[in-house]
Structures are given as C-alpha cells and as structure tokens.
Amino acid sequence: MDDRDGVIWLDGQLVPWRDARIHVLTHTLHYGMGVFEGIRAYNTERGTAIFRLPEHTRRFFGSARILQMDIGYDQDTINQAIVQCVRENNLQSAYIRPMSFYGSEGMGLHADNLKVHTMIAAWEWGAYLGAENMERGIRIKTSSFTRHHVNVTMCRAKANGNYMNSMMALQEATRDGYDEALLLDVDGFVCEGSGENFFMVRDGVLYTPELTSCLEGITRDTVITLAGEMGIPVKEKRITRDEAYLADEAFFTGTAAEVTPIRELDNRTIGEGCRGPITGKLQQAYFDAVEGRSPGHEGWLTFV
Ligand code: PMP
C-alpha cells in the first residue's frame, strides 16, 4: 500500500503518498489507542460523491471523544480535507480512511505529552467480500472469539485497538475456509461480523441486533431507513444463534461490505442458499442511494 502515486492528507497538508511516514515509536502502534473511519465515495451521474460524509465525520469525532483524544480540527475542516483527498487523487470512486493517532513524543502508558496526528488516505477499492458474492452470498461461521464486553472496550468508538478482536475472528474463519466470522456478544447473542453489522429476515420481518456491543453502523442505519420506506417491518432485538439458523435470509452491512448476502451459517444453508428477495431489494436500494439514483436521498451525497 505504501508504494504508489498520489497524495495523503497528513496534519493539514497533502504529502506525496510515499512520504507519509511515521516513526516506529508511534504510540498508537504500541498500544492501539487511536480512532479511524471507513468511508466510500461512488461514481454517480453527477460526478463522484462521498456517501454520508457528515455522519462518518461525526462518528469519527464521537470515537475521539470517547477516547478523550483531541483531534485538533473541527468537523468542517475534516470534511473538506476528505473531499480534497478524493479530488486530488483523481478518484472516481474510493474507499477513504481517516485516522487520528498519537505520535512518538513519549512511550509508556503514562505518556502525557503526546501529539494527536490525523491522516486521510483514499484509494480505489472494489467489493470487500468479493464481487461474485454480492449475488451468490457468503459462507460464515460463528466465531470462537466473543465480541467485546461494553465495559472492557468502548464499542461505540471505532478505535484501532478494538480491531484485534475482529482480526482474530476473521483469521480463524478464513483459515477454516469461510468468508467471514459471526461474533456473539458476552451473553451469547448474535452481535456482528468482524467489520459488518448483521441482519436477518424471518417471515417478512427484518431483524438486527440492538446497539449494545456492535458498532453503530452507518450502513445499518441506511438499510433500516430504506427498509422503512419500502414498508418492510424492522425490529432491533436480541437474536439467538439458533434463531439465525432459522432465518429465511441474512446479510451483512458495512461501508466496505456494502450489503453482502449470507448464504450459509455454521454449515447450515440460509433460506434458498443464495441472495434472498428482500436482501436483493435492499441491496438494490442501497446501490441506488450511494450511486445517486435514489430520489429523496440526494442529501446523503457530498459531491467532490
Ligand atoms: N461493525 C464493525 C465492527 C465495523 O468495523 C464496521 C465497519 N465500520 C461496521 C460494523 C459497519 O459500520 P458502517 O456501516 O458504518 O461501515
């Protein structure tokens, strides 16, 4: 990733991609205390548009607030910097990664002289879980790793350190031949994927876990809104693992994963073993919204 043309926004300046470097004693590298976002921009008929940018930036600042990190810029400045990053890299569509992290001014947990640095990078990135899986659906497995307890890790924060748990779960799942992991919460209820929120359909009703230890996903919110507009009943509730086995349809949502159907959970076929009809409708509505074909949702787009 480091050897390519382009520019990265770092501490208020655009620097050549290859020069955006940090020291090995970078505090966040050692202890994982930092915050980040994942945002996408899509190619629309009216040009490149970033999807729900203010909501992502608000969550970014919320994550920093939870960790008591002072980003040192206001949200407007970060919004403009994100737009600039997509524009200056001549990207028609993009995955955008802002991150705030502590510098190398000190080491040890007591370090109190740390500067907060902020970077924004953007690059082209296709379907996160494979283009063919957007129709076919993925195979997932319940993880042996439990999702964070809400009083162990701050689950509302999209914090760097939280993702060790995600990576352990994902590595286990992929090494066992699955596409993704499904993590349960500490009480054994369905929580989320390693980087996605979970939805299931049963008897025409769309269910998703309550926001306890899962991330407050922006795609989750988008899908709930779209489902409401389509007259699909939505219920946020605790979901048990065996309830998910009985689902007619299931899918993951996320900025990277978009709306990815799930065709199998723990070697049990979900529904017909392919993208279900409600999943298909919501997926289409999602792509219509992000690609600017959804009347009434232009407000979700920030044009570059
Ligand atoms: N849960 C986790 C753990 C994630 O990392 C993500 C991706 N940010 C999501 C859910 C989905 O969130 P969003 O739709 O805002 O990308």
Automatic annotation (TrEMBL):
Entry keyword set: Amino-acid biosynthesis, Aminotransferase, Branched-chain amino acid biosynthesis, Pyridoxal phosphate, Transferase
Family annotation (InterPro entries): Aminotrans_IV (IPR001544), Aminotrans_IV_CS (IPR018300), Aminotransferase-like (IPR036038), B_amino_transI (IPR005785), BCAT-like_C (IPR043132), BCAT-like_N (IPR043131), BCAT_family (IPR033939), Class-IV_PLP-Dep_Aminotrnsfr (IPR050571)
Reactions catalysed, as given in the entry: L-valine + 2-oxoglutarate = 3-methyl-2-oxobutanoate + L-glutamate; L-leucine + 2-oxoglutarate = 4-methyl-2-oxopentanoate + L-glutamate; L-isoleucine + 2-oxoglutarate = (S)-3-methyl-2-oxopentanoate + L-glutamate
One GO location term (cellular component): cytosol
Cofactor: pyridoxal 5'-phosphate
The EC number(s) this enzyme carries: 2.6.1.42
Pathway: Amino-acid biosynthesis; L-leucine biosynthesis; L-leucine from 3-methyl-2-oxobutanoate: step 4/4; Amino-acid biosynthesis; L-valine biosynthesis; L-valine from pyruvate: step 4/4; Amino-acid biosynthesis; L-isoleucine biosynthesis; L-isoleucine from 2-oxobutanoate: step 4/4
Keyword Cell inner membrane: no
Pfam families xrefs: Aminotran_4
Gene Ontology MF term list: L-isoleucine-2-oxoglutarate transaminase activity; L-leucine-2-oxoglutarate transaminase activity; L-valine-2-oxoglutarate transaminase activity
SUPFAM superfamilies for the chain: D-aminoacid aminotransferase-like PLP-dependent enzymes
Top EC class of this enzyme: transferase
GO biological processes: aspartate biosynthetic process; isoleucine biosynthetic process; L-leucine biosynthetic process; L-valine biosynthetic process
Function: Acts on leucine, isoleucine and valine.
Record-stated family: Belongs to the class-IV pyridoxal-phosphate-dependent aminotransferase family.
The protein, known as: Branched-chain-amino-acid aminotransferase
Species the sequence originates in: Alkalilimnicola ehrlichii (strain ATCC BAA-1101 / DSM 17681 / MLHE-1)
The gene coding this protein: ilvE
